Here is the input.
Amino acid sequence: MSATPVTSTTGTISHWCDGKLFAGDSGNTAPVTNPATGAVTGQVALASVADAQLVIDSAAAAFPAWRDTSLAKRTAILFNFRELLNKRKGELAALITAEHGKVLSDALGEVGRGQEVVEFACNIPYLLKGGFSENASTGVDVHSVRQPLGPIGIISPFNFPAMVPMWFFPIAIATGNTVVVKPSEKDPSSSLWMAELWKEAGLPDGVFNVLQGDKTAVDELLTNPKIKSISFVGSTPIAQYVYATGTASGKRVQALGGAKNHAIVLPDADLDEAAAAMVNAGFGSAGERCMAISACVAVGEIADTLVAKIAERAATIKTGDGTGDADMGPLVTKVHRDKVASYVDAAETDGATIVLDGRGVVVDGGADGFWLGPTLLDNVTTDMSCYTDEIFGPVLSVVRVDTYEEAIGLINANPYGNGTAIFTNDGGAARRFQNEVEVGMVGINVPIPVPMAYFSFGGWKASLFGDTHAHGIEGVNFFTRMKAITTRWQDPSVRTDGLNLGFPQNV
Here is the structure.
């Protein structure tokens, strides 16, 4: 295996179906670019309805045998996959950098967080252990089991082409389901690389499949009756569509949407630590994280000092090609780069102070790359588009307030509720914050509070549609159904004669 895109004989980045590359018959493709150079590096297949159905049929055909495969065998394959992934993660990171643009160290971090879920899933025999009650009624035993759903669909975003699918498919596979992954068209090769790794690990053909495509592929996954659940990560408008369409088709759906994550900095905070955290959370991965902090809420008289410290650190960030020694890479496409820059234009027009302007950044990379450097906006108000919208780029807005109450009021009034953080040395203030804030993931002196794999990832409000978060025990529950079984074995020495039409008695 190499770090080059996995292509079919046609030279197209294709689907993966029944344990092998599948070109499909649609003939439609979309360009894949290297964001650091702007060059088109490949073409990804866009599935037709017929292509999508063939891939889904492969997952459906493989399900009965995989469902009935022993936990011991499933676990052995998962361990094989984990070991291969750990050994070759550099290859996957290189693929991510080539198609997404993030720096290699960030790509390796992404793979590492995904690997944590693989490791969690390796404990699936314990996680699937049911309950048993002997003699619940006289001579009657009751036990429960959790069983897989069937073929499941995963629709993943461009910003984490490896980690986000790994939030779902290790647990789905471990619990006995078969999988169809629909990656983003912008960085499609990572899922194919993982498909080949699964095959090498010993996973039977048809258990893990990759369906490349656009809305046509998505809609077939959402409506095809053979797909039993959908796991989605992306923007809130699409998450709403996925949830509404999938549930209307009778499927379980977990649809994780967008975010506008705030961090409150109280006057008693260590401002050096807070400033460093804001730089990390605002500009890491060029701000293309659903957990990025894009709104820093400075409370009281510390604002001037805090902004100066953030600007000082952010100005040292080296923007450039992720394969070199850059700290921050490009944005994923030119269209997205221009959209993010338009928010900076609007903020300037609306009266925000541009402390650090990334629109004219000098980069260590191709002249045609999709560049936007770290951008720091001060004196942002809540009616500006740079505050109200999820920008998804390296733009950090500082909002000034006088009190803690104003700060938490901003967060709780926001339609999103994905992640948040507070920086303080006051334990009482931190405890009050974690209790009062209406957000799913909370950091206390931690800027990006992504939970470990044995907890569950997910937001509140418009950041999540459905009631089940990703991975952890909630992930196990999402990919399984509980069955309760009541059993009575008649003692051959005791016979009950006669007719009894009464309601069962608990005696």
